[in-house]
Hints:
Elements: E1 16-19, E2 26-27, E3 43-46, E4 50-59, E5 73-80, E6 85-90, E7 99-107, E8 110-117
Parallel strand pairs: 6-8
Antiparallel strand pairs: 1-2, 1-3, 4-5, 4-7, 5-6, 7-8
The protein binds zinc ion (ZN).
The site of zinc ion has 8 residues, from loops.
Amino acid sequence: xxxxxxDWTKGEEAITYQTCTSCGHVQYFxxxxxxxxxxxxxxEARASGKGSVYSTSLVCRAATPETRAHxxxxxxxxxxxxxFRMMAHGDNGLAIGDSVVASFxxxxxKLVPYFARSK
Length: 119
Ligand SMILES: [Zn+2]
């Protein structure tokens, strides 16, 4: 099995994804196999952080005491340039279809991907 690249869940300022070497399926959640065809050992790569907004949802009620300081905050689904879709934080003013680029911000004590409109 190939070595897993460090990403933001490991404290690294990076978003990673996997591409299946047999069918070309792209997936964000890391697995030892392709979710589409079941082939093992998908190839890992670092994403550019560029994408467009697929949906937005403003969170107005804190789920935990640690997130209360951030309310209201926007949770986005972003279609990334590489072909996978991920959930992430982003600017409150973003609308569906906006071009965005990722940076990383602390949220409830953890560094998380944060999307803002790209210039
Ligand atoms: Zn596949």
